[in-house]
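Summary for the funding panel

The consortium committed to producing paired sequence-structure records for every protein in the target list. Below we show the first two records in order, beginning with the earlier of the two.
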Amino acid sequence: MSEQKVRWGIMSTASIGKRSVIPGIQESKRNTVEAVASRSLDNAEKFAKELGIPKAYGSYEELLQDPEIDAVYIPLPNHLHKEWTLKAAAAGKHILCEKPVALDEVEAQEMIDACEKAGVILVEAYMYRHQKRYEDIKKLIKDGEIGDIRGIHGVFSFNGATNLENIRYKKEWGGGSIYDVGCYPISAARLILDEEPTAVTTHALFSPDHGDVDMMAAGIMEFSNGVSLTFDCAMWAAFRNELEILGTEGRIVMKAAFLGDQSYDIIKGDEVTTVQEENINPYALQADSFAESVLDGKETKFPADDMIRNMRAVKGALLSAEKQQRIILNEKEIKTYA
């Protein structure tokens, strides 16, 4: 008898699904993609045929009504994440929702509450956090390999500015570089430090030609003991996705921190040690981790309130850029700094 697998439905024909997430699910051990839905049945059928998906639906509602679907992946525009997560939960489907999971922490809380009430799992799709090297790096830091942490620097940028119809350039849809790629170094710093930031200051380029969204942003996010994350992110700059962890005795550098090769360098003075992790598809790792929770009842790799805390930090970074102020991040609310 073959092992039970999670049967997935894909909610939309978005490029991130076609390029990365669906192939990852198909490559994983305990998952299978059974259906795709689009607002156009013709688009859904073409997409399904191209990716070898058995069923196609002309509406998201039809997908949610399919009793043979266990879980859905939601790569819709950011402002639709809450609406369709709530509908999927009500239909009894487990949910992998593209990052950022919501527009703010209030929405994230509503989504988590609805999923808990429905008895379904909600996971935010930060695939890089399933790479083994992040666990290994955290252990190296704990063991004192590079001394005491003094700071983290993270960048994620690409240039897609010529496509003015891109949904990332619709402010009311949750567009902008902080939501799209800035969330990666922010979430990585929280992961590595195992704590939450206390304040953030961000400066951004808002482009009238791109819906007035932040096309590039740079900031400093404050943690305890004088440690900070300095970061920049962009949708109108050369491609980079790097992370550096600076310690008193050395540093750890990931030249491809979120996408690409899963190696990292440990640098101490003139000595550079390159550690090459096995390049396992992180989207497949993410899918199998999800399946463990659905099929085996295992706790999700990250607790639900991690989504709330991450949204507080990400939203705070955007708010700082919009208000041109330092933003205080606390447990109850985001406050502007007077």
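The next record, for a separate protein in the list, is shown here:
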Amino acid sequence: MDAAVAQTLFLAVCLSSLLILFIRKTVYQRDKLPPGPTPLPFIGNLLQIDTDGTAKGLMKMSEKYGPVFRLYIGPEMTVVLSGYEVVKEALIDQAEVFGGRGNMETFNQVLQGFGISFSNGEIWKQSRQFSIMTLKDFGVGKRGIEERIQEEAQFLMEELRKTKELPFDPTFIFSQAVSNVICSIVFGNRFDYDDKEFHHLLRMINESFCLISSIWGQLYDIFPNIMKNLPGPHNRIRHCLEILEEYIRKKVKQNQQTLDPNSPRDFIDCFLIKIEQKKENSSSHFHMKNLIATVFALFFAATETMSTTLRYGFLILLKYPEIEERMHQEIDCVMGRQHSPCLEDRNRMPYANAVIHEIQRFSNIIPLNVPREVTKDTHFRGYMIPKGTRVIPLLHSVLRDPTQFSDPDNFNPGHFLDENGGFKKNDAFMPFSAGKRICLGEGLARMELFMFFVSILQNFSLKSNKHPKDINISPAVSNFGNIPHLYEISFVPR
């Protein structure tokens, strides 16, 4: 072999080797998982996660591992998305891929994958589309539901006057008010504030939400097969949820006995009619189990998240009486004392609107978001996320993103006000999540919050038995949910 042939062969081998290395490196880069801490067998990275403020702990980890990182929460790999840009890219720009729902066994031990909150595929699509259309038929997003909220606000004012300025825990009076709005749609009626069965249902909702947000509830979601065989307060979760399920089942039976297909009275009637229409369709997911799970989700979510937001909001106003006073001034200037608040008033009340938005941003009721799941193998920001991987799009990191909010860790209505005092929108305002899984009751919730907050402050001044500097507005529990400290408040007629 002459020198020229040998040199050519040598170059060919070198180029081939370089090409192979390049291909291997490219494949490795394409398929590599996001970075993250080294897990321990079985428990994964649990010892490295701050369970007393999980969302804050995950944000700290993102400072080390980047805005996309992996964790093993128990034996299961989870990908965490941190920061507005990353969460937006996933939930909005790649909404289909990140549109799956991750499992939460605390809820699914009763819901079993049905309904609109913890279902996937065709079950979710059919249930959500039907729910959106039916809620619209019953006035959600229209004048009809606004009148229902106004009516309930007047009932609430009567109950607050009955307290005669004495301090009390507002947890359940707020729950009754917001729950009655959704109850009038799904059950066809509201409840009196002294209805004992209604009180019991609301206590079950509140207790289960607190337990799911506790360390016991978190452990149940991570190790369900172990925890369901161990004693502890986590076993109360199923008990509470089954009481709610049984009540819904009872209401469905009552509706069945008096159903008029030509004149549906409520959401349950509409679903029963749909079941009958689709009974010959083998691919239909309109059946009794899905009806109960769908009503359960609407009843639970609309009650607990909004009542907790109200409770957190009034605690914040007790902390900052100067903000309360400025809201009083705007209300008196725009509406006076006689006019019942309506949705049109919101555009004329930029400060009140900004305060309510800031309450939602700061309280951040579901800081971890409800878990997502990728629907196929996904290349995202240079990493490979395998199909079926659980994803946590960290809402806390969006609502506290320093690139989007100038003073993210402090309560500041100025986040939603421009230099002229007008209301200023912010795309990072995502308390209802975003994308295909955004809360379908977002519009209803915003109406309720505005009209309840403004109605109360139009009629009452707030009083606490604590000095503002002694009021703690950090969450008492911060895991699945952010739950405020218990407190007492007095409503003093203006």
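Regarding this second record: The first helix runs from residue 3 to 31. The CA atoms of residues 4 and 10 lie 10 Å apart.
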